[in-house]
Amino acid sequence: MKTLGPHNGFLPVTVYNSNERLTDWLAAAGNGDEAAAEAIYRRFAPAVFRLAAGLLNDADDADEVTQDTFVYALRNLRRYDPSKSAFQTWLFTIAISRYRNKRRRKWLASIPLLWFAREESAEAHKHAPARPLEDWLAARGVRRELWAEVQSLSPKLREAIVLRFVGAMGYAQIGEAAGCGAKAAESRVRAAIAALRRRLIVEGNAGREWLEALESSQQ
Amino acid sequence: MISANHVGEELLAFIERRLAADEAARIESHLRGCDACRAELAALRETYSAVADSARALTHLPVNTVRGWEAVRRRWQTPLPIGLPGASRARNRSWQVSASMAVAAMVFVSGVSLGAARASAPSVPYIQTPAAVVIRSDTPTLSATHPAMASHTPTLTPAPIQTY
What's the pTM? Predict the structure, then answer.
């Protein structure tokens, strides 16, 4: 920690560097120290943002969930108990809760459209332009089909697989963040992988041959 | 369908190297003699590494922490409307306030409707006994009619009237 100033009449500014202990940041931010809060944000925001992007498949929504997560966390730092979980796990737990709220709001907002245009929605979705996040991932070698299948998993399975692979969490931490036990978390990841495998089987050689045979038999 | 003798349930732990040495040895031994479980393992590994590659790409997603922090800082420093420490509690409280207001609005609207219905009641012809106080059994209000009006009103009573 380094205190600068006062410069040009401004109050002294405290700058926290990444080598300092997180507990110091948390204590200072809990007392309203803006520099400590910013240090926490800068260290953990990228992980929370990527987790949210993996869950929501939209950078703007992920940005909103990340902001909601940190605003809640900074206002409630006294509720964080280091003896119960790692700070990142606590943040991910908040992020999952905010993601669920976001998903619910989006679903509610989509009801009128689904109600009045449900006949056309499937066709419209088929021709919808690719979203920027999907483009970004595709440019880095991620198969669009795979990413689309991850997004079409049930919410519980998607949460589990994103926490495991994007959040790099262990099963106990996934269980904590998703509100289920470690065993259930592992079971969900296994089920998600199995579902993806079933859906993507046509991508493999054997699947492609089978698909070609099916198509030729229909001609 | 994997039978109890197969090891499909443990293959995820096996490829993530989370099994104890003796457990891993038991799985390897089973895999040597079981085509179905070997095929299951190969398929699991393929999907697992495809998902892991996607997740790895996502970890390079750029994040604008400067803009993000400005937004968070502004909201963090804005006092909650109810003045409670937790946003969620404030939200719960605001939900309760909204619900109370909604109930109050419904009561008000139904009261206004009732009043409007009553206001239109004089257009319905009914007779009042001169100089009498009349209580209509279907409404809780009292009304009195001037005796001079009695001659101008038809003798029709759409609702039961109790006269005292």
Answer: 0.65
